[in-house]
Specification:
The chain is mainly α and about 200 residues long. The protein is about 75% helix and about 0% strand. The protein has helices spanning about 10-35, 40-50, 50-60, 60-85, 90-105, 110-125, 130-150, 155-175, 180-195. The termini are far apart.
Length: about 200
């Protein structure tokens, strides 16, 4: 670098995005390791090298930060589930595998604690979370495709999507809150698969 060169500061939008990402990363670690109740705002703002003021500016409060963490994890889960569906031998099996995959993720400690235990306890009914509409829309689209291909019964796509989403969410929460999550998953998944198979023509 020449003596006369000047280092330009990052644009404001870039700085804000970096601050937001840093806070989410620090909170995600704290929520995952300690749980929402035990995670201190001072702990993760200090870890991020930021102030409470920055947290309030970006997220409003600790609950807002939890929702941001959940939305980040949810986006990662969706990417993984899309890959599971794409790897299936046919569209129906991909649809089943994707929904079962969501339930199986309830066995992962971070998802179990942040998304399935602390999330509902702090933020309320997951069906009212901002990511729920996208989930319903995606399942509805899959149901519509399967109907067009003649693979499943002629059911209302949105109704089926809401019932599938509700069943998989409840199953995942049941597993996450069980004394023995693995044993509960072994009970929940076959029952869920049987419900899904009821959609097939001729079932």
């Amino acid at each position: 670098m020449s003596a006369g060169s000047v280092i330009k500061p990052k644009p404001r939008a870039e700085r804000l995005a970096a601050t937001r990402a840093t806070l989410i990363a620090a909170a995600r670690r704290a929520f995952g390791e300690k749980g929402y109740a035990e995670a201190s705002m001072d702990d993760f703002t200090a870890e991020a090298g930021l102030t409470r003021g920055a947290l309030y500016h970006h997220f409003g409060d600790k609950k807002g930060l939890l929702m941001a963490v959940i939305l980040q994890i949810d986006s990662e889960m969706a990417t993984r589930l899309n890959a599971i569906s794409a790897a299936a031998p046919d569209r129906w099996q991909g649809f089943v595998d994707e929904n079962v995959g969501y339930i199986e993720m309830a066995l992962e400690p971070e998802i179990q604690r942040i998304v399935l235990r602390d999330g509902p306890a702090v933020l309320g009914d997951p069906s009212q979370w901002p990511n729920n509409d996208g989930c319903i829309a995606a399942i509805s689209a899959s149901v519509q495709r399967l109907k067009r291909e003649g693979l499943i019964r002629d059911v209302d796509a949105e109704a089926a999507a809401r019932l599938i989403c509700g069943a998989s969410t409840y199953a995942a929460q049941w597993i996450a809150n069980a004394e023995d999550p693995a044993a509960t998953a072994r009970r929940a998944i076959p029952a869920f698969q049987a419900l899904m198979e009821g959609l097939l023509r001729g079932a």
